[in-house]
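Aim 2 progress update. The chain analyzed this quarter is reproduced below.
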Amino acid sequence: MKIAVVAANGKVGRLVVKEAIDRGFDVTAFVRSANKTIAKSVVQKDIMELTKEDLKNFDAVVDAFGIFDPDKLSLHSITLKHLCDILSGTETRLLIVGGAGSLYIDKEHKTQLYDTPDFPKEYLPLAKAQGKELAELRERDDVNWTFMSPAADFQAEGERTGKYILAGEEFTLNSKNESIISYADYAIAMVDEIEKGNHIKQRISVVRE
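Predicted structure tokens:
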């Protein structure tokens, strides 16, 4: 299986690259600056300069793009639209590293996590930007997308347990009443999803067991 990881130099991107390579997949890291991943196959190119030719023949493309600068949050939607346009009408899967804020807290799917009064205000702009990204993605019938939301407490240096709960659109707690997952376990879940391919045109979520 051939996998492309876009924005691979980020913390999540690097772990997805490593997890996929460790499983024996053919992985190409797409980076804007000097490669920081363990990938041997590397394309150094800005995400907005990628073309159909760059991403042809891949079975899956992982969009690990993320930005926290309040003035640049619109790039989440802009870059994802560009990737969707490139992959439009192809069989290639597009898997997006998403956010937790857009998860629903009710079965009717009327209220999202970022609508709750206790949602941290400092993360609200980012959560809204990623929620907008997901809403726009839902309109794309021409792309085999999967949007994967992490748990609310997404820990960069968290433990790699190898165990997680795969959930759907709704905010899910584990047996300890926690919403937590490490970047390492998230990467495992992402590569599992690439292998199994069970959630085409769906948002899924993951939380540590």
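Residues 99 and 149 are 5 Å apart (CA to CA). The longest strand covers residues 202-208. These observations will guide the mutagenesis experiments scheduled for the next reporting period.
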